Amino acid sequence: MATYLYRIGRWAFRRRRLVGGLWLGALILAVAAAAVAPAGEEEDLSMPGTESQQAFDLLDERFPDSNSQGAEARLVFQAPDGQKVTAGEHRAAVKDTLGSLDGGKQVASTTDPYETGAVSKDGTIAYSTITYTEGAVDLTEPTKAALEDAAGEARDAGLTVEIGGSALESEEEPGGTTEMIGVAVAALVLIVALGSLVAAGLSLLTAIVGVVISFGLITALAAPLGLTSTVSILALMLGLAVGIDYALFITSRFRDELAQGSEPEEAAGRAVGTAGSAVVFAGATVFIALVGLGVVGIPELTRIGMGGAGAVGLAVLVALTLVPALFGMFGHRRILPRKARKATRPGGERPHRAGAAAGKQGLGTRWARFVLRRPVPVLMIAGLGLGAVAVPALSLELGLPGDETKSTETTERRAYDLLSEGFGPGFNGPLTVVVDTPESGDTEAATDQVVQTVRGLDGVASVGDPALSESKDTAVLTAVPETAPTSGETKDLVNEIRGAVSGVEANTGAAVLVTGTTAMNIDISEAMSDALIPYLSVVIGLAVLLLLVVFRSVLVPIKAALGFLLSVGAAFGVLVAVFQWGWGADLVGIETTGPVMSLMPILIIGIVFGLAMDYEVFLLSRMRESYAHGASPGEAVVTGFRHSGRVVAAAAIIMVSVFAGFIGIHMPTIQTMGVGLAAAVAFDAFVVRMAIVPAVLALLGHRAWWLPRILNRVLPNVDIEGEALSRHATGAPSVPPVPPEPAPQPVPDAASPRQPVDWY
């Protein structure tokens, strides 16, 4: 693989104008396609195969008119303190408000709360349901303005009015202040790490090209494929983070090759052949893990995974082709830091490798030697620390948030609170019970038994009158719980209803199904919990297999998998502490605690798996290369940290900054993802890879790189370190490997035939 990528790197460098033109054309086409494409619709989560989804599908078939896709709004009215909303002047204000909406464009119907009984028992709160002919994303601004103006008229009349439902929902667009702060931090880290504005700008530019293309393609395909705003934001988040990191790794290796005396074209080829091999492997792991989300069976999760995988795939292609092309466009000397540029000027003296190493030890070298001297204390502190952070994960609860998690500054949240106050906490999460008797059964008799059974259960506040389908073979009724939609008591009630109606099914032959948004959320959460361990097992197995092939070692993959588990466990602990327990919730703008988003654990596992392998590969590939060339296990660790430690640390800071920047988007999915991914990357890069990995390698010694003979014969040689380049690359210096020195304290990396100068 290294030889093939080496050729791609040299070709892209030589054909830089062609490569740049092709990517520019792709960028223009993607932007144009996004500009003319119709807007996609936000779809509710679905879970094929669950009871609640079966009931939804049955309702669509038997009650097509009542299950239209039009948006809904709830106007919630509250009378002033000490007054009733049923008073004459308030009743008139409500009717005038609803009258101003009747007959409006895109308005299908409005309900009168005084005729439908939508007034609280104490007479202080009432609500009206406004149904529209179009979905929320297709409602025009005049339609939304008319709804808000109507609410304003009622407020002028002395009523408190809030608007719930989906009519005012809008997609959160990326590009806000917090995201820009994340990108600014990433740019600053690049400048400090690379010491060159050109090199930093190159990494940012290539990442932005990949992100814009993927964002444009997702926008263009949103309507036909049902892609939501969550898909596009995740693609932006992932594409930006990995795009910057991949460009950083290749740029860093390019500078190392230049420092070794390679010609620019040769350096570009070697950078893509070595660091590019690691980029391909790391990108492939992220791609596979994200595509694998489709096995869970949730269409929305599948679309999220496919969108993120596409963004990562584009980032890999950009890094392998556009980055080396820009090396030639910008001029190789401008990519070097100022000190290195002076050394490479005509007549400038290039420092000797050994002298440079002996004269200065960087932070990575000093840290590696510290860990090698004290591996047991470092391992215990790091392992126990991550274990302590992971303890809250034992209390992980999964759910899907609704309006109750929104800020109290939003009218949707205030409408939710008013409805809970006037009609009980369970009013916002009613359960829909479907009674199906397609055969010659007595639908009314079976429905009566179901009604009596549900009414007799503890925790049921009320049961509405059933409605029959036109064919008289299906009935639907609404049961309102006494508890809030996301509470554990409501979940228990759903399971209790399903168990209680089994007797009715046995007696009548009818099929009784419980559905509704609350039941669907419960079913999805349970499905996610059930799929978590199998998916984690698949990911861990894949990690062990891939690392076994890459590093040709048995213990290194096992160590990497255990470290990955620690990172994920600690990230879940942070999610529970913030989103369930409320620790530091104010810092991320969370006003109401509740269950963690159902999709997050599996989604975070899939993403972090690939990102964790990034750092594992980039750090250990240098160690493996040094060890293969004769260095001792300890000096191989030092070599890896000297040449890759700083770059990996910079890459991790960049990725954490990008992920944290998306916490400011007020969407529960994105906020949870931002916190979880930022925490996971920080733990994995700075605790697992920087502390646990060198400590374990120090304790294992030569055993870390042991591989049974049979596996050595069977496993393919992917050559991620680029050893084959010394035989196939043209113009490369030919330096025979030096055998390892027998001295107890060998000179660092003296055994390596070809090591880059640490210019920074």
Automatic annotation (TrEMBL):
Residues 203-329, 534-699 form the SSD domain. This is MMPL family transporter. InterPro entries: MMPL_dom (IPR004869), Mycobact_MmpL (IPR050545), SSD (IPR000731). GO terms for cellular component: plasma membrane. Gene3D superfamilies: Multidrug efflux transporter AcrB transmembrane domain. Residues 729-760 are annotated as: Disordered. Residues 734-747 have a biased composition (Pro residues). Keywords: Cell membrane, Membrane, Transmembrane, Transmembrane helix. Belongs to the resistance-nodulation-cell division (RND) (TC 2.A.6) family. MmpL subfamily. It comes from Streptomyces armeniacus. It is a multi-pass membrane protein. It is found in: Cell membrane. Its main location: membrane. The chain crosses the membrane at residues 180-199, 204-225, 231-250, 271-298, 304-331, 376-396, 532-551, 563-583, 595-615, 647-665, 677-700.
